[in-house]
Write a structure and sequence with these properties.
about 90 residues, 2 domains, three-stranded antiparallel sheet, 5 helices, about 55% helix
Length: about 90
């Protein structure tokens, strides 16, 4: 039998050593799997802007005459995604 507390899963019995919790074991496996893998770079424009603000800017720039490709490059999107945003928001 195992007894679960806040920090460890410990087998019941005399002299049983505590085992690490399931959460810490999973986190350890994730750390090993993703060790030394760089995180995806997110364009700076998306870090400080809500999606609705981004979409509004995309529509404004398209209305001002910029091409889908120019807008897509600036926002780190595909021109197909920019087209979808314009169709939904315009």
């Amino acid at each position: 039998m195992f007894q679960v507390d806040d920090h460890f899963v410990t087998p019941t019995g005399v002299g049983a050593a505590p085992l690490p919790s399931l959460n810490s074991a999973i986190q350890h496996v994730i750390d090993l799997l993703y060790w030394n893998i760089p995180l995806a770079e997110v364009p700076l424009i998306d870090k400080h802007m809500s999606l609705s603000e981004r979409n509004r800017q995309i529509c404004e720039r398209y209305s001002a005459g910029e091409t889908l490709e120019e807008i897509a490059q600036d926002f780190g999107l595909s021109h197909q995604r920019v087209h979808q945003i314009i169709r939904r928001w315009a």
